[in-house]
Structures are given as C-alpha cells and as structure tokens.
Write a structure and sequence with these properties.
Elements: E1 4-5, H1 8-30, E2 35-41, H2 45-60, E3 64-70, H3 76-88, E4 94-97, H4 107-113, H5 125-132, H6 141-152, E5 161-165, H7 172-180, E6 189-193, H8 200-204, E7 209-212, E8 230-233, E9 237-241, E10 247-250, H9 255-258, E11 264-265, H10 273-291
Helix pairs in contact: 1-10, 2-10, 6-7, 6-10
Length: 295
C-alpha cells in the first residue's frame, strides 16, 4: 500500500474560493467588508514572510487589510495602546500580532489585550475556554486546518481512535479538544501524548488517525504506525538549504517509510501548512459576520 497524499494546497485553494465568493455576497447585500489588521514588530525574516503572506491573501480575498510595521524597540505601552485603538476600530474585525515578539514585550499581556471578538488566532483565554466547552466562535488556525483536511478528504472521524503527539497550546491541546467535541467532524476518542509518555509506540500504533506535532525530525517511524492509518504531519524542521538558498523542510514523520503503511498522509511541505493562513481568513470572515449580527 502506498498512501494517498492529502493535498493541503488544493484544499486551501478550495476554501479560499468559498471565502472569496461569500465576501462578494456580503459586500453586495450588506455593504460589509471583512477587515484584518496585522502588526509586526521588527524585521525578522521569518515573521516578515508570514505577515506578508497573510496581508497578500487578505487582499486577494477582497478583505480590507491594514498592515502596521513597528520598530523592534516599540514599548509594551505603545503596543498595548495600538491594540486598544484597533479594538475600537469598526472596520477592523480581526487583529493579528505576529509572534514571536521582542524579548522586552510580554506576549501574554499582548494576547490578552486583544478583544476576544477580534482574536482571529483564537489564542485569548476566553476563546480557549469557549473551545473547551464546545461553544467556540473561532477555532485556532492550524488545528482548524487539520480538521478540514480530514473532513474534505473523506476521513471518518466519528468514533475514530485519534492519537495526537505533542501538547502545545497552538496545535496539540486544541486539536485534541476539537476532535473530541460532540460535533459534526469530531466525536473521536482522543489520546494526547507528549515527551513524558511511556512507550509512545504502543499509543501511536492504535491510531486510526495519527496527528504528529512533536517538533522533532522523524519522531514517528513506520514501526509506530498502524497499517491503513491516516497520518497528519504538522512538523516543520529545516534540514538544510538548497543551492538557490531556499530552506529544505521536512516534517516530524519518516515520510518515505510511513507512506508505505498509511492509507493517507500529508506531505511536508504542502500539507498542513497552506491551511493555517486560510483558516485565519475564515475566522476573520466570521468575525465580520458576528460583528454585523449575521452569524
């Protein structure tokens, strides 16, 4: 058996087209334009690339996009004042402060300052809490993207044995919560594993759906995977640089070996990655609709 590739780039393209069409309808029927503000401190190349991609995608989908670039030396007080201003700006429905922030900035205080209704990353404790009780307005972007990859690839989640490797606040914990909810596209039995899990392979080998966000190259090998499992690789590990200077990226799963046992698998790159910005746009669209009383 050679696994079918789950094409994240194509699924992301489909969702973006759906968003684009809904934005056209919102403009025509309600004169409503979703607005996204992105804030970047400093000029870190990785952060600059991410923020540029988010801004570009927002404009392509017909959003109002406001990008605010600040010096790396910007004070905590000035950053919080900017967030307060954006919280009150009616044409802005989503606020994204690009992480990581400079060392002198308290990231938690910044995240908590964003109005939960405009927290389209879904990192605010209010939104995390609403996810926990199954009443989320927005889902964290990467986990939401994983769920959509599964749904749109026809994977049966209801009743499935799901094993998540990694317990980060960004991926592991939220995807476990999303897939265990009593909702459509969920209802799974979820095991959450981490660095202190004993005999990791005994857990991963039970998985119908294996989600790996361990942050370690080849953290999951073929002997740890059940025949026919669906494998979602969230890892991003740089293993080198091409002759053209482009980063060479691999995931947390031993792809070449595992694809011979899995029924479906996400490649790295081109699997989960393209979904993250797309789900950010979906959250911003929903934030605009909520603000207008349309959702």
């Amino acid at each position: 058996m050679t696994a079918k590739l789950i094409n994240g780039a194509e699924i992301a393209r489909q969702i973006r087209e759906e968003i684009k069409q809904e934005v056209i309808q919102l403009k025509a029927k309600h004169n409503l334009v979703p607005g996204l503000a992105t804030v970047l401190l400093g000029a870190d190349p990785g952060s600059l690339s991410y923020i540029t991609g988010k801004e570009k995608t927002a404009r392509e989908l017909g959003f109002y996009s406001e990008r605010i670039d600040l010096p790396e030396t910007t004070s905590q007080k000035d950053l919080l004042s900017l967030i307060e201003k954006l919280n009150k700006e009616p044409k802005i429905h989503g606020i994204l402060v690009q992480m990581p922030l400079p060392e002198h900035i308290n990231e938690s205080e910044v995240l908590y300052a964003i109005d939960p209704r405009k927290d389209v990353d879904a990192f605010h404790p209010v939104n995390v809490g609403k996810l926990m009780i199954g009443d989320a307005d927005y889902l964290p972007c990467t986990p939401a993207g994983i769920q959509q990859l599964l749904i749109r690839s026809g994977v049966k989640i209801d009743g499935a044995e799901v094993v998540v490797v990694g317990r980060s606040n960004i991926v592991g914990k939220p995807i476990a919560n999303i897939l265990m909810q009593k909702n459509k596209g969920a209802n799974a039995t979820v095991t959450l594993c981490h660095t202190h899990t004993r005999d990791l392979a005994s857990h991963t080998h039970r998985a119908d759906i294996l989600i790996v966000a361990a942050g370690k190259l080849k953290a999951v090998t073929a002997d740890m995977v059940k025949e026919g499992a669906v494998v979602i690789d969230v890892g991003v590990n740089q293993i080198g640089t091409s002759t053209s200077g482009k980063r060479i990226i691999r995931g947390d799963v031993d792809f070449d070996a595992v694809k011979e046992k899995a029924s479906m698998i996400t490649p790295v790159p081109g699997g989960v990655g393209p979904m993250t910005i797309t789900m950010l746009m979906l959250n911003t669209l929903k934030a605009a609709k909520l603000a207008a009383g349309l959702a």
